Request: fold
Amino acid sequence: MIIGIAAVLLNAALLPAFAQGAGQAARPAPTGPWMDKSLPPDRRADLVMEQMTLDEKLGLVHGGSAYSGQATPQPTQSLGGAGFIPGVPRLGIPDFQMTDGRSGVANTGRRGRYATALPSSLAAGATWDLKLAYEYGALLGKETRDLGFNVSLGGTANLIREPRNGRNFECWSEDPIAIGKMLGRALKGTQDQLVVGNINRYAVNDQENGRQIYSANLDKRSLRETDLLAFEIAIKESDVGTVMCAYSKLNGIYACESPYLLNDVLKKAWGYKGWVMSDWGAVHSTVPSALAGFDQEMPSGRYFGDALKTALEKGEAPMSRLNDMVHRILRTEFALGIFDNPPSAHPVNPFTGAEVAQRVAEQSAVVLKNANGQLPLKAGVIKSIAIIGSHADVGVLSGGGSDQVDAAGGNPVAGPNPVTGRGPVWQPSAPLKAIRERAPKAKVDYDAGTDPASAAKLAAASEVAVVFVNQHTTEGRDVTSLALPDNQDQLVSQVAAANPHTIVVLETGGPVTMPWIDKVSGVLEIWYPGIRGAEAMANILFGSVNPSGKLPVTFPKSEADLPHPVLPGPPSAPPQPAPAAQTGAAGQGGGRGQTPQVPFDVNYTEGLKAGYKWFDAENKEPLFPFGFGLSYTTFSYSQLKAAASGQNVTVTFSVRNTGKVAGAEVAQVYVSLPATAGEPPKRLVAWDKIQLAAGESKAVTLTVESLYLSIFNVDKDAWETPPGEYKVLVGGSSRSTPLSEIVRIAAAR
Ligand code: BGC
Reply:
């Protein structure tokens, strides 16, 4: 596999046009007082703006692509990423070269360049490891820059409210604090590589079905305490340079023209200094958008090109607003080093990427079931293993749409679409090969799993059966059901009936149902695990890595237990066709996937009860709860103490590894607020991932800041920490909290 990557790298080095960063390399180094690095970014922005003409300013507030029906040719100096905006060469203002990137730099392979396919963001979320989240983001930033881009489009702070959302694999968690902290670290990592980061899709774009026409409706308190809290924390932790407003409407108003979202909350309440760019084709107006606090239309200038100029000239929007847009853009570029250290394109080193990708995959795999110590498998003892299904002979699955990282050397599985040749992309990291390498004495055979009877026959003749199953998800299309598609439930059932030692490996974009759970002996969730996914998976199966991933999302028993048993859509939505594209820039209108034409409402009446909070409040037993994951060792918790200091709480406790092997535990702290707060039963407020040798114990101290203990008072338009008794709960999952303690918080003075 590494040889394959090296070949791609070598090929990449032979592509001079791309490697030179198209038109950019020839430009002279910028001069002017604004190039004085000792000046603050705001001052530098003011100085360069003094020199800019109106047209130069307008040129920065919209993308440089043609919109549909417009004759303008695509700019030649674009590197071909998702977005491009020409700079102002006479003033040294660089071109914006934008590329998608959540789980790696997207869509570079089709231009002959290699980028590391990291595990999906949801997998990264399952590591619960803040340091690793930083490394994940840093690798993304480094490769973005290595490939000549200066803006990275992504991470997603959207909450997993809807388990059928086609983009859940791009999300980090169903919990706002977990998202905020993990994504915040990742974005910091990205920006520390001197590229502008981005957080998207602001806000409540929590399903794909009808994303350009539905209105997500959510009451203000729930909004601030759930979906917006994730953005608030991530922005605060990372100082991210750009916020991407979503396609959808929020409470009846398009996100990119919502004064509440943009001016009131983002810019005023949170003091955000960066700029707001649109999702691709998500702008619907000129003046209302400009006045609402929107700053940059992508990927073209339908509303923020000539139309904005006319509106400014007529006085319909003040010139101060344009100046504010441009100031935000330039000050961010100065603050993040884009003027001073422009990227120069050169080949990516795939070996560093593979190393980070493998560590994330190893830390993110979640063992959901391990009956009778079936795992880890004992390589020296097992004589035969059946490997079944999901193209495990050639690769591991990845998610589709704008987050698609191209497969190094090409997709090893021919696409089912006869016209485009495209389909789900498998990353060339083959489970069959990885398992053979770890069990060299065993007979390891493969069955494609397309015929359950044939697979069951191989399973019956083998000591252990490992069945790989998948759920492909993509931008532009939600899944209609949480059941595994393509008869895979039947496959697992028949294999399990043939062999009592059946282990199921899930490659999914989010939760799935498991009607066969009682019949199999092991279940391992590896998400979309990236370019070293198979190697990581095999290390877990054979115990050279002790699993430590925990679920960042609840797995329900069935859709009937969800707040919305049926995926919201228009009353008579036609069945959705397969997504139109897994291409690069979506063009005007954001054309990934089809959407129904009749506008509709998605009423999140469950409000605060998103994810596990719904299951707790409604007394529903999930299949696997939020925060759950097994290890090959065991842990015990003791000595909890919780003390308030003002509106903050400090929690100390001890965790011991009570088993025989070293392992890591994600120790989680939840809090139940006083009854007067009117909150769901508990919320996650802190966690730590603790490495422990066999028999070792460690004391853990975590401080919970007051925001995480607060509720949003809509009348006062402010956060407040209600005085009273808070119950602190500590343990290894949201449904396993052996320690608890009451702490009293006094009224704020
Ligand atoms: C997606 C964004 C992406 C953009 C550019 C849109 O369809 O929603 O996440 O950044 O395309 O590719």
About this structure: The chain has 19 helices and 27 strands. Residues 82, 100, 153, 200, 279-280, 402, 585-586, 590, 592 surround beta-D-glucopyranose (CB under 6 Å).
